[in-house]
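Backbone-to-sequence.
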């Protein structure tokens, strides 16, 4: 009986640990695609980026998150941009909090 309780506890613990590790956000993701829309915000903006695989990402770009005004760039509709940051997904949308604007063409 003691062994059964121990095994059950270990299985429960392992399930919890595995579920917590799979819920982590991707902190160093890179998204590359065409800018299809811009929505102005308080200290930055949100750019709608569509990748070649037709995935849509809402990239939050702010002066604070990119490390100051020297690293901040204003993207324009039609630009092809590569951004790096923390990626996460809501029920229906992909998001990325941009920490670096890698390239703009």
């Amino acid at each position: 009986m003691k062994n059964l309780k121990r095994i059950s506890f270990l299985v429960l613990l392992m399930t919890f640990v595995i579920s917590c590790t799979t819920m982590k956000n991707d902190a160093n993701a890179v998204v590359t695609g065409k800018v299809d829309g811009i929505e102005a915000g308080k200290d930055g903006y949100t750019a709608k980026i569509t990748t070649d695989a037709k995935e849509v990402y809402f990239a939050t770009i702010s002066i604070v998150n990119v490390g100051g005004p020297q690293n901040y760039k204003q993207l324009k509709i039609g630009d092809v941009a590569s951004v790096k940051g923390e990626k996460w997904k809501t029920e229906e949308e992909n998001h990325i909090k941009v920490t670096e604007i890698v390239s703009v063409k």
